[in-house]
What we know:
- There is one protein chain.
- By secondary structure, the protein is of the alpha/beta class.
- It folds into two domains: 2-188 and 360-376, Glycogen Phosphorylase B (Rossmann fold), CATH 3.40.50; 192-357, Glycogen Phosphorylase B (Rossmann fold), CATH 3.40.50.
- It is 39% helix and 19% strand.
- The strands form three sheets. An eight-stranded mixed sheet has the order 3-4-2-1-7-8-9-10, sandwiched between helices. Strands 13-12-11-14-15-16 form a six-stranded parallel sheet, sandwiched between helices.
- α8 (192-201) packs across α11 and α9 crosses α14.
- The longest helix has 15 residues, at 17-31.
- It starts with a strand and ends in a 12-residue tail after the last helix.
Amino acid sequence: MKIAFISDAAYIGNKGGIEYTEMVEAVELAKDRRNEVHFFSMRWPGMGKDFVKDNIHYHTLTKTDLSTFYRHGRRSIRTSIMFTLSMIRIFPHKFDVIEANMFPVLHIPVLKIYCKLRRCKLILDVAEIWERKYWSEYLKNKFLGELAYKYAAYFLGSAQAYIANSSVTAGRLSAEGINDERIYFFNPNLEMGELKKARKSAKRRPRIFFSGRFVKEKRLDLWLKVVKDVHAKLPKTEAMLIGDGPEADSLRRQIKELHLENVVTMRQFYPEEKEMWKQLASSSVLLMVSEREGLSAITLKALALGVPAVLPEDSPIPKEVKNMCVVEMESRLAQKIIEIIKSGKPERYIRNSDGLKTFSSSNVIPFYDGLFANLFKSGRVPEATEKQ
């Protein structure tokens, strides 16, 4: 197979859950020498123009960084348009399959045109389906929000297959009129061998951990307040924030206002994922209070490393992950974390850990063998029906 992954943010340039999953899938497929794997992305700092890594051919398009990728705390419309226009670079190539991140949505019609001309199959990688209200809130404009919602809903039906990262997303796709036979639930973001090594070498310390994009949806203001409450009762407690994003400066100010400068360590993503695993594995708790979340790759990694994840009751994290976590009322989060740290055995608070097997990267090749077999079994899959 000649396969192309399309995403405006490749993991090697910008760290995120869905980006990591896409990288794992691309790497595993590229290990199979029957496949030729390409990855089209924006050109983030430190990325070359075109290069080969892990047997994947990377094609970096228009330049970006966090200051241009995000504007006013949200994804830049201008940057999304530039990324969409840069998709013209795929046309000289002849791919059998394209797997594209659904966001930023604007690029989907271009990919649909390419697939019709090249008789290529289109797979959309879907982490979230946004409702009309959220589009308006996100864009801070009711008219633009309505336009974006209708655009996304109309072109959602353009693919021959959909990879949903959670049961919640799969259900939303079905509710939007996508045939269940074209929806596949898959999210292979756990490299069990490497995670076991990190867990084995870790030395536990009383630390509360978070890693992710510093955006408002993560509710890191609440995260800091919980850390402060825990530290007031357990003065030896530390906290660690790893990430970057438009809320970074605001977080630094809040840390000072809460007098947590000697408690919270804040740093950017590590160049190598393994370094983050070491820090996470040596922590006592992952605190995840995000109001918008897909499957949450960092939560799964914490559980695989023996670190319990503590969530508020209203967490949007889907049931297949949530039922392995510690779930508490928001007002009791600090109290529960204190209990876990005092126990000295945080791993005992992880439930139903057998569920982690579903998310192992070892499942990649069997999954895609089945998906490709379904896509090509009749020689040509009928065109997807667009939602009217």
